[in-house]
Write a structure and sequence with these properties.
Elements: H1 6-10, H2 24-49, H3 57-69, H4 74-82, H5 90-109, E1 118-128, E2 131-140, E3 145-151, H6 156-170, E4 176-179, H7 183-193, E5 203-206, H8 212-225, H9 234-251, H10 267-276
Parallel strand pairs: 1-4, 4-5
Antiparallel strand pairs: 1-2, 2-3
Length: 277
């Protein structure tokens, strides 16, 4: 008896066909494998961010998100995690905020939508160790956040730092900047615009009516800062406020996440996609 060839063994003793029939199963398996590899790469990037931490990444992200978004104290979160069977110290959550809020902001900013070119700029007050400091903020005419910056003083130098940062962050100059009547801000805006060849095209104006928009936008930030009962250190205050502003921007829909395919996904799934991208 003639020995069967490997191909004949594969086809139960029959001669193999000249052309193998097409099979959607193989194509589907390949697509599934590619999706699996993409998911592994995404989760790998997330795991690297939390490498060496005692608690699960989902718990860390959850605590940071909730603290920055809602009017909760560190001790409120400790009690909430205790109900889930987790024993946390409030100082642990405090360290998580300082460690991860800047990293979260950096990763979300990769998906930021461009803002409009008509800005409203104003300052509000934040108390740190019993002393008032100044939070410079800007939004466009649609209420989208342009930039924020915490400064120890309210003067020309502080305003110039803010405007340079805002121009650099947006990559272009606005067409209009609306300010209140404080002359130091007007002078700072004019001098920083003068550093750019096209700066003379930007109109600087003062309007209390138009600046109602930014004054109203201060409110959610101030409401969140209230339960914190003040800060002890400037750097921690700046980091925490930047995280609060990030959550405010997310709520206002300032990020374009279409390519991540997160439509109808839960908040943890969206955060995993953004952090792992």
């Amino acid at each position: 008896m003639r020995a069967l060839t490997p191909a004949e063994v594969l086809f139960d003793g029959e001669a193999p066909p000249t052309v193998l029939p097409a099979c959607d199963h193989y194509a589907g398996s390949e697509k599934l494998m590619l999706k699996s590899l993409a998911l592994q790469q995404e989760l790998g990037a997330v795991f690297d961010l939390f490498k060496g931490r005692h608690f699960d990444r989902e718990i860390i992200v959850l605590c940071v998100r909730w603290y920055l978004r809602y009017k909760l104290s560190f001790r409120d979160l400790v009690e909430m995690m205790a109900e889930r069977g987790l024993s946390l110290a409030h100082t642990t959550i405090m360290r998580w905020i300082q460690r991860y809020a800047p990293e979260f902001e950096k990763r979300w900013n990769r998906f930021a939508r461009p803002v409009g070119q008509s800005w409203r700029v104003d300052e509000t007050y934040v108390k740190i160790k019993g002393r008032w400091t100044y939070l410079y903020r800007a939004v466009d005419k649609e209420g989208k956040t342009v930039d924020v910056l915490l400064r120890a003083k309210r003067d020309v130098a502080a305003a110039k730092v803010f405007f340079r940062r805002a121009f650099r962050g947006q990559g272009r100059l606005p067409h209009k900047i609306t300010l209140d009547g404080y002359q130091a801000s007007h002078r700072a805006a004019s001098e920083v615009l003068g550093e750019h060849p096209e700066g003379n095209r930007c109109e600087i104006r003062s309007s209390k009516y138009l600046n109602n928009l930014i004054e109203q936008d201060h409110r959610p930030i101030k409401l969140r800062l209230g339960p914190m009962l003040g800060f002890k250190r400037f750097r921690r205050a700046a980091t925490t406020i930047a995280g609060i502003e990030l959550m405010h921007r997310i709520r206002k829909g300032q990020f374009k996440l279409g390519k991540l395919r997160v439509k109808n996904k839960t908040a943890p799934e969206i955060w995993n996609a953004v952090l792992g991208a």
